[in-house]
């Protein structure tokens, strides 16, 4: 069995999560990566600085899909910092000219269902159901640790549950409260889109997805991608906590249930 030194850890910070922009920072001693860059380069650098890190240390960027709240800063970060950028062919095509020209040697194709190895870090991609060209999310593995990210999906399929089951940590979508969305000011077609199988997970959907995948290894759960118009942190947190406790899951005992923010990074935490 491989012995892991105290300093030889998988660490994570949710730099920003919400309908206005998303980015997650993950590091091991050998590699520092971002998953998504849905804010300006300046804002992402500020968020990195707030956790004692800098974009100069990042070597790779993995993109989930082309929507602006996940890809806004991809081009500028790739050019400014020489990052290797990974996405599938559909996402590269959909991002197109919106992200500007990126040197060919920095562009990498990572199809869904594949693993990209970076030293001891393995980044596994998996497809989700969302109204983007070819959306995929990622589970990062390092030694015996795993951190899975799943937002921007209308439902959690059996295949996805099998892929991310019993991870040590999760960033999991709780986009909206169904009643707030239905009673809110969005046009009906937009409400239908969000509620559809290619939309977003509600608080209840997120809770049910988590109930299906958490295991004995799970220690950290971040609730992410909350709508600023159709949700509030306290409601999302209470809904998930209540539903999980109703299934005899020991929230805040066996694992921590944590909130995220669209403007402030979570502390850099060992997973």
Automatic annotation (TrEMBL):
Instruction: Say yes or no: keyword Thylakoid present.
Output: no
- Coiled-coil annotated residue ranges, if any: none
The family database entries (Pfam families) matched by this protein are listed as:
Lactamase_B
Q: What is this protein called?
A: Metal-dependent hydrolase
Looking up InterPro entries in the UniProt record yields:
Metallo-B-lactamas (IPR001279), RibonucZ/Hydroxyglut_hydro (IPR036866), WalJ/YycJ (IPR058121), WalJ/YycJ-like (IPR052533)
Hydrolase as a keyword of this entry, yes or no, is yes
Q: What keywords sit in the KW lines? A: Hydrolase
Question: Which GO molecular-function terms appear in the entry?
Answer: hydrolase activity
Top-level taxon of origin: Bacteria
Which ranges carry the Metallo-beta-lactamase domain?
20-200
